[in-house]
């Protein structure tokens, strides 16, 4: 009987993996990659360090999985807007308006994880910063392709700077993310989105 009880006490702690991943994602989202330590993660996830390593690998592997979960659950709206709307203008307008909403949802960290999670990283975390930068640049390339298609179809003027316009929208979105983290509300960001749309060629 004693041996059996000891064996039961020695079993690894069970936990819901998806719930733990969600908590890790929110920690990275709120504090950034560099500032979030393993001890921070084990505390918010409610698991031990050995359990974290066994279930997710190291901190970088957990972060990559958290970013993927963020894309499925909360991010990805810019890419979807550009892909689903019939014109680049409508896709950009939808993306900006959705950014105003998504970046200010009550009960969630403010802004965008992909934009803010690696703002302050050491050289040791350069790969993390590069990975997130590539995700952001992918959105720029998708917008640029949509804008070029609109130019070819006559929806936008022939002299439209497709690359510059895509970068402009990306900069506005990044600014909206930071403003949300600084406390800007949805109404304020929607006004920013409206003003940004006026800069698009008619």
TrEMBL record:
Residues 14-74 form the HTH tetR-type domain. Coiled coil: none annotated. It comes from the Bacteria. Residues 37-56 bind DNA. PROSITE patterns: HTH_TETR_1, HTH_TETR_2. Keywords: DNA-binding, Transcription, Transcription regulation. PANTHER family: HTH-TYPE TRANSCRIPTIONAL REGULATOR YJDC, TRANSCRIPTIONAL REGULATORY PROTEIN. This is TetR family transcriptional regulator. It comes from Streptomyces albospinus.
